[in-house]
Hints:
Largest sheet of chain B: 7 strands, mixed
Structural class of chain A: mainly beta
Distance between the termini of chain B: 33 Å
Strand content of chain B: over 45%
Radius of gyration of chain B: 13 Å
Strand content of chain A: over 45%
Number of helices of chain B: 0
Distance between the termini of chain A: 40 Å
Oligomer: heterodimer
Largest interface: A-B, 25 and 26 residues
Structural class of chain B: mainly beta
Helix content of chain A: under 10%
Helix content of chain B: under 10%
Amino acid sequence: QKEVEQNSGPLSVPEGAIASLNCTYSDRVSQSFFWYRQYSGKSPELIMSIYSNGDKEDGRFTAQLNKASQYVSLLIRDSQPSDSATYLCAVRRSGGGADGLTFGKGTHLIIQP
Amino acid sequence: DAMVIQNPRYQVTQFGKPVTLSCSQTLNHNVMYWYQQKSSQAPKLLFHYYDKDFNNEADTPDNFQSRRPNTSFCFLDIRSPGLGDAAMYLCATARNQGQAGGYFGAGTRLSVL
């Protein structure tokens, strides 16, 4: 069973600080990785995608990928109370006719004003 | 404007009473996915359509069926809902196979009484 693992939290971070969210995955051949933000009762919203080793920045968000360690992370700089949500890590499935995404259970992030 | 539209947003059904959830898309994407997300759990892929080709996940219960009458619409039928089927049902699309990640609908929250 190919899995995506995340610490469920809650992760509590003061407003203005950097929030760091981590994710590991088991399928070594995975190539595409995504971070979604999900507010309570809402559907997931894509905030970052990353395909190559290294860092990818978009505004206050930075995704980091290390395929050798099978590790993906998301950094949120200058955290705001509106960033409080559950963050889902997802890996695109591939091989053997597989399609779609495998998700982690998510990390619940709380930004303290 | 919403590009992946799910109806209804909230659905209440009785134990054992068939229910149908609807998803439509204005993106003209070839692939449509249905995910099930139970409380505090990861979204789980139930099945997907590539055009008219139906792809069922091995562990999707027989109680769940799907129809895609045309490119724009996809339906999820639950033939005999049980209490354990109460969840958020998420529809997503991708332009082609192997391109999952991005467009989710707002979801339908199903309650089973």
